[in-house]
Every structure is written in C-alpha cells, then in structure tokens.
Amino acid sequence: MVIGIGGPSRSGKSTLANLLVTYFRKNGKKAIIFHQDDFVFPETQIPKVRDKTDWESPASIDHELLLEVVTDFKHRFDVVIVEGFFAFFDPKLNSLYEKRLFIKISKRTFIIRKAMDSRWGYIPTWYIDHIWKSYLKLGKPSIIKSDYLIASGEDEFDMKKILGYLEK
C-alpha cells in the first residue's frame, strides 16, 4: 500500500506518518516513510521570494527523484508512506497512492505553531503569510475526492478513524 499524507506546514504530517509506520511495523508489515523535505533541490536551485529561499514552491522539490524512489520501494515494502506539503502536487506521484490522508488545521493554529517553530531561526511575518498562501494555492489538492480522508491536525489524531480508512 502506498499512502500519501499532505497538508499545511506544521499540521502534523510527519507525526502521523511516524505513528502509522510504527503501527504497521508492530503488526508485522515492512513499512517506510519518505519525507518530501528530503527531496529538495540544493538551495541555489530553488526560487526566491523577496530574496528569501521559497521552500513553499513546487520547484523546490525533485518530484522525479521522489517518484523514482517510491516506485522502487513499493515493490520492496508492504507500506510506503509519502508525506509533505506537496504530497498531492505531482500527478504521477499522486496516481501511485492507494490511500490519501489530508490534514487540515486552521490558519490560527498554523500561525501559532509556525511562530513556535525555531528550527530555521527567525521567520518574518510576511513569510509566514506566504507559506499559508502557498498552501492554499498549491499545497492542497484541487479537488478532494472520496478517496481522501480528511483528518484534523488540531489535536490528537483520531487513529481509530484513520486506521479504519486505511484497512478497508
């Protein structure tokens, strides 16, 4: 099974991916996660916005390499999980998913979590706004079909609901 997990920055995509891979491994499945952030181009090749690297651009991700890796690993693992801001952006990668999880959070929750995120140092307010606008424009699927489960990232995940969706 190939699972795609998408949603805005700081919504819990990595947390959910880790919970799922742990669950599947405890149940005897070979499971692996691919974080889209591990497939970014070198910073010099990424577009800029106001002289700041635009990590929220689809052009920041090597979609072809990610597709190649997922295609290879889906034959070697029982469960392959791909998580990222642009998890549903590339049609070829999106077509590999057998299950799609989209995590929603409010703009308020996003702003609070992003303001507490010190991994990259100070983030200007205008760039936080840019991240949210990029998510609205490019990060969410253009059409949420019935083959997506929408999960709330506001609090703890409803794992019973998520696992029920994945196991049917």
Q: If you had to describe this structure to a student in words, what would you say it looks like?
A:
With 168 residues, this protein is α/β, with parallel strands linked by helices. It is built from 6 helices and 7 strands. It has one domain: P-loop containing nucleotide triphosphate hydrolases (Rossmann fold, 3-Layer(aba) Sandwich), CATH 3.40.50. A 5-stranded parallel beta sheet has the order 2-5-1-6-7, with helices on both faces. Strands 3-4 form a two-stranded antiparallel ribbon. The longest helix is centred in the last third of the chain and has 15 residues. The protein is globular, with a radius of gyration of 16 Å. The model has no long low-confidence stretch (mean pLDDT 90). It comes from Lacihabitans lacunae. Keywords: Kinase, Transferase. This is Uridine kinase.
Key structural traits:
single chain, 168 residues, alpha/beta, Rossmann fold, 6 helices, 39% helix, 18% strand
Chain-wise SSE layout:
Layout lengths: L1 E5 L6 H14 L4 E5 L12 E2 L2 E2 L9 H11 L5 E5 L7 H6 L2 E6 L2 H10 L8 H15 L8 E5 L6 H9 L1
Parallel strand pairs: 1-5, 1-6, 2-5, 6-7
Antiparallel strand pairs: 3-4
